Amino acid sequence: MLYRPLGASGLKVSVVGLGSWLTFGNQMDPLQSERLVHAAFERGINLFDTADVYKLGDGERALGAAIRTLPRHRLVLATKCFFPMSDDPNDRGLSHKHIHESLHASLRRLQTDYVDLYQCHRFDPETPLLETAMAMDNLIRRGLVLYWGVSQWPAERIAEVTGLCREQGLHWPISNQPLYNLFDRGIEEAVLPTSVRHGLGQLVYSPLAQGVLTGKYAPGAPPPPDSRAADERANQFVGRYLTPERLQQAQALVALAKGVWLTPTQVALAFCLRSTDVTSVLVGARNVAQLEGSLAAVGVTLSAGLLADLDQAFPA
After folding, report:
1. Which distant-in-sequence residues (6+ apart) come within 8 Å of 102 by Cβ?
2. How do residues 256-271 score in pLDDT, each as one tens digit?
3. Residue closest to 283 by CA, chosen among 180, 208, 225, 179
4. How many CA within 13 A on the CB side of residue 154?
5. Active-site position among 3, 54, 205, 241
6. pTM beyond 0.90
7. Is 54 an active-site residue?
8. What is each CA distance from 138 to 7, 45, 243, in whole angstroms?
9. Which numeric CATH code is attached to 3-211+272-301?
10. What is the per-residue pLDDT across 19-58, written as a single tens digit (0 to 9) for each?
11. Alpha-carbon distance 140 to 226, whole Å?
12. How is the chain split into domains, by residue range?
């Protein structure tokens, strides 16, 4: 395993992290979740990412149960808040009240005294930015959170909040968690350079475009019966990647990878990690074999020629 510093901090995380969006608390039973988490830990993964909204807390509960016998000091445990957890008008957003109450609920579900990284799952236009920053700073000063970050925030808000925190003497965010893969390269224009300038590392999610970049979906053919696209519990977001054009692009990736004796998964993940400006890719897995397929990307360096071919096949 390789490790990179997260933004302008001393925290080091594995270049592959294990996410829990569609697996823990949803598709896996507790025993499967525990086996996968332990397999990830044994292979050097120290970053485990979740959120309160994943299956309305069940994702955190499953992860908390899975890590209960692992050495806590060797884990980088990350979770998030923002999305509604109930019909209550205050049980959402990034107000001081919701951040405070969400964090304590997450700690109970995760069965831990602190989280290493607490992330604002989206930007909240209804809450003053200073209020959100002060709430996060308060949690850090109390030792309940060690670092904080954001997810899917636009470049201008990243610049604004880091400037505000420095001006007010508050702890500023060290990370952003954006959507990033060969299909979705939007962060390259503004979010990535702004984050680098202000000291935020990127923990990118969906680096395999929900499995489409593995090449397992053939154009014009039904999805494999054991795939995410065939699972009604998990296919509500994958459809936008299953267009004829994108499936053809995925097959182009298969051919390019085969030409350099790599798998499409290795190439897709190595593309995201080609610069240290991206700290880690967050992958999902239903079993250890899928996890090992992602881990095979660690240390892979793509040639300039292959990167040029990828730019042509997947224009930014």
Report:
1. 52, 81, 85
2. 999 999 999 999 999 9
3. 208
4. 4
5. 54
6. yes
7. yes
8. 21, 29, 46
9. 3.20.20.100
10. 988 777 676 777 888 999 999 999 999 999 999 999 998 9
11. 42
12. 3-211+272-301
